[in-house]
């Protein structure tokens, strides 16, 4: 039996930092952000639907999506975000399901689904266990500003587009506190997987 683990958090809370570590332990990782990028590449159905709705103003010169510009629109406007989600999320789900089935067929002890919007989209019922990568709001904002070179206001808008991490805490099976060092968070992750006997 393969244990299906949903790894979630908030924007810049440290999901990729943890999933990269889990990958180094040979666990298969399926990343919703990666699949969401592939689903909107030029030529994909998702790409055409986005251009149809948002117009060519959200394209770069080479015809690919200008993600910064699209982000500026959808993180300021809930309705536009819902339109984008409606286009991208079904494609992401199909792609992830396919990869999940492949990982199960390969006989892995566990498969990790890295899904930022796991609780928002009520996908927790589709996994066996959930892990939340948690950070305090101040740490989250400062790491997001540093990583994405955003203004304080832009960072706040992105965080506010998601369920507060405090609320997610109550929903998760296990929590990794990522306010400390990366090594400390990796140890917490290892302990959880050992408790679940998948490592
Ligand atoms: C708005 C877009 C173009 C911005 O692209 P950008 O390269 O700047 O960000 P990236 O895709 O790397 O996402 C970074 C983080 O933003 C957060 N985020 C992204 N989309 C959303 C959303 N619709 N609602 C809330 N948070 C979101 C997630 O925490 C994600 O990890 C892009 O995020 C997108 O297409 N979003 C819609 C699809 C989606 O929901 N993806 C998230 C996982 S399925
Ligand atoms: N424990 C830590 N100490 C210091 N910096 C950290 C720590 N964990 C993560 N970071 C940094 O914080 C930023 C966000 O981490 P990461 O990219 O792993 O988050 P994420 O949740 O995957 O983000 P998103 O899903 O929004 O792309 C990165 O720049 C990363 O290097």
Automatic annotation (TrEMBL):
Q: Where in the cell is it found?
A: Cytoplasm
Q: In which pathway does it act?
A: Cofactor biosynthesis; coenzyme A biosynthesis; CoA from (R)-pantothenate: step 5/5
Main subcellular location: cytoplasm
Could you say which EC number(s) this protein's record lists? Answer: 2.7.1.24
- Reaction it catalyzes: 3'-dephospho-CoA + ATP = ADP + CoA + H(+)
Under InterPro entries, the record lists: Depp_CoAkinase (IPR001977), P-loop_NTPase (IPR027417)
Highest taxon of the lineage? Bacteria
Q: Which GO terms describe its molecular function?
A: ATP binding; dephospho-CoA kinase activity
Pfam families listed in its UniProt record: CoaE
> Which residues take part in binding ATP?
12-17
- List the record's Gene Ontology CC terms alphabetically: cytoplasm
Database matches in PANTHER family: BIFUNCTIONAL COENZYME A SYNTHASE-RELATED (PTHR10695:SF46), DEPHOSPHO-COA KINASE-RELATED (PTHR10695)
Q: Which family does it belong to?
A: Belongs to the CoaE family.
Q: What is the purpose of this protein?
A: Catalyzes the phosphorylation of the 3'-hydroxyl group of dephosphocoenzyme A to form coenzyme A.
Kindly provide the name given to this protein in its UniProt entry. Dephospho-CoA kinase
């Amino acid at each position: 039996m393969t244990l299906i683990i949903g790894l979630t958090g908030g924007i810049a809370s440290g999901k990729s930092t943890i999933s990269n570590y889990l990958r180094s332990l040979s666990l298969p990782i399926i990343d919703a952000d990666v699949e969401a990028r592939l689903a909107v590449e030029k030529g994909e159905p998702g790409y055409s639907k986005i251009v149809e709705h948002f117009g060519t103003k959200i394209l770069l010169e080479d015809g690919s999506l200008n993600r910064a510009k699209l982000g500026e629109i959808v993180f300021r406007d809930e309705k536009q975000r819902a339109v984008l989600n409606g286009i991208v999320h079904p494609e992401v789900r199909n792609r992830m399901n396919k990869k999940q089935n492949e990982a199960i067929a390969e006989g892995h002890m566990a498969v990790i689904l890295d899904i930022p919007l796991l609780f928002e989209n009520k996908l927790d019922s589709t996994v066996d266990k959930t892990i939340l990568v948690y950070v305090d709001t101040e740490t989250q904002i400062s790491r997001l500003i540093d990583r994405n070179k955003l203004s304080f206001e832009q960072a706040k808008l992105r965080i506010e587009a998601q369920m507060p991490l405090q609320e997610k805490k109550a929903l998760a099976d296990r929590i990794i506190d990522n306010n400390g060092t990366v090594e400390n968070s990796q140890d917490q992750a290892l302990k959880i997987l050992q408790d679940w006997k998948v490592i």
